[in-house]
Specification:
The chain is an alpha/beta fold and 161 residues long. Helices cover 46% and strands 17% of the residues.
Length: 161
């Protein structure tokens, strides 16, 4: 199903994936001791411009937008991709870790959007991606967000592992 969505452009599957992500989101609510009044924000793993041209859309962004609509949570583009990398699925864990260093940066427009939200407590930020393999992409993205928004709690939500 993911290959149909991601590589063949069957974008009708996005709502189904977002519905499935709602389940993962609900699990974080059950295990997280942070009070519910904390502002929650969705963001997503950005694609390189080359990959965006190749696919025509960013599957993680679409999933975040659909999930945000279902949960009534804001989606803020907090990350930029500085450079193109080859597909991570073809690499070992060590190759992924090395390849992803300095790939992501904070999106200053998104950060400005974040600061304009009526946030009274430390926000909880969910990074949306399609697949969790080694965790290197989410770890790198979370690190960049934590550097820029050190008071936030950062979580990853993926459709598959």
């Amino acid at each position: 199903m993911l290959a149909r969505y991601k590589y063949r452009g069957d974008e009708q599957l996005c709502d189904l994936f977002a519905e499935m992500l709602c389940y993962s989101y609900a699990l974080t609510q059950q295990t997280d001791p942070t009070p519910r009044r904390t502002q929650e924000i969705l963001t997503y793993v950005p694609l390189s411009s080359a990959r965006l041209v190749e696919r025509g859309f960013n599957q993680a962004e679409q999933m975040a937008q659909s999930l945000g609509a279902k949960l009534r949570l804001p989606v803020v583009p907090l990350l930029l991709r500085n450079r193109h990398t080859e597909k991570q699925s073809l690499k070992s864990r060590n190759e992924r870790l090395l390849d992803l260093q300095h790939v992501f940066a904070i999106d200053l427009v998104g950060r400005e959007q974040l600061t304009s939200l009526p946030i009274t407590t430390a926000p909880r930020i969910y990074i949306i991606d399609d697949v969790y393999t080694t965790g290197s992409t989410l770890a790198e993205c979370a690190s960049i967000i934590q550097e820029s928004v050190p008071f936030a709690s950062v979580y990853g939500l993926t459709w598959a592992r």
